[in-house]
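Folding problem:
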Amino acid sequence: MEMKDILDHHDVYYVYSKIWLDDLCVWTQACASDEALTRLGGLIKNATMTKQSVGWELEQLEGVVRQIQAGEQRELDSDDE
């Protein structure tokens, strides 16, 4: 609920609250038993997330960002001369 409150009051990220958290909050309040929440908490605690498990080309995207940042840094350095 704390995460939902944070996202709900952000100018850009409020949409993530609507997409990800609204249904989860409704399910939690209406349907989830203490046992189900305890099991879910254990599964989340023990979960391991890697860049590859996300399904996006994160390492490739990071490389592109590093190239852009390096180019911007070179431009800043050349402005100093």
